[in-house]
Amino acid sequence: MRSDNLKSYLPPFLSTTDLFANIFNSQGQELDNIDVDIADLNAQFDVDTATWALDIYEKDLGKSTDYTKPLDYRRSVIKSKWRGSGKLNATLIKTVCDAFTNGNVEVTFDGTIQVKFTSVYGIPPNIEDLKAAIEQIKPAYLAVAYVFLYIYYQDLKPFTYAQLSGYTHEFLKTNLPNFDHNSTALTFVTN
To answer: What distance, in Å, lies between the first and last C-alpha atoms of the chain?
Structure first.
């Protein structure tokens, strides 16, 4: 607390009086509050840690603010808009996708833009935001194909019906089980 720091500037016989103790405690609390406010303001300068400043970033980019979206989704939209300028090629599209998927995509171009998710099983929750970002940077005449990764039947062959019976088909499509031989329990690799 700053009050201890302030007291160190006075001789000991003054810093222990009730008058100075009260003054320094009051001023120390105010200075501590200022430190918290400065730390919060500094956090707003980085889109990865920003909270209330996301509104400002979105306004600058001409995006409407959707408070129903989680902060991470809003951040990824902002980052993709920043990255989405320049000559359109697979690298640019991958850069935009990386803002949404943390680098887990392969992008190829053979007349159609193909975005393949390589480590996220199923359809990513923010796919609509990613589609909107790609639509904004690509020419209208180019088509985009999205390829999603799912668990295949052969991936589940090592497991018995009894081991998997407690899980739904929908759950097993996007969650790959791992068998722990020491405890006979299943753990899951999830998104």
So the answer is: 42
pLDDT digits (tens, 9 = 90+) for 21-46: 888 888 888 988 999 999 999 999 99
What contacts 140, CB < 8 A, 6 or more positions away? Answer: none
Res 191: pLDDT: 46
Question: What are 144-158's pLDDT values in tens digits?
Answer: 999 988 888 888 888
Phi, psi angles (nearest 5°) of residue 73: -65, -45
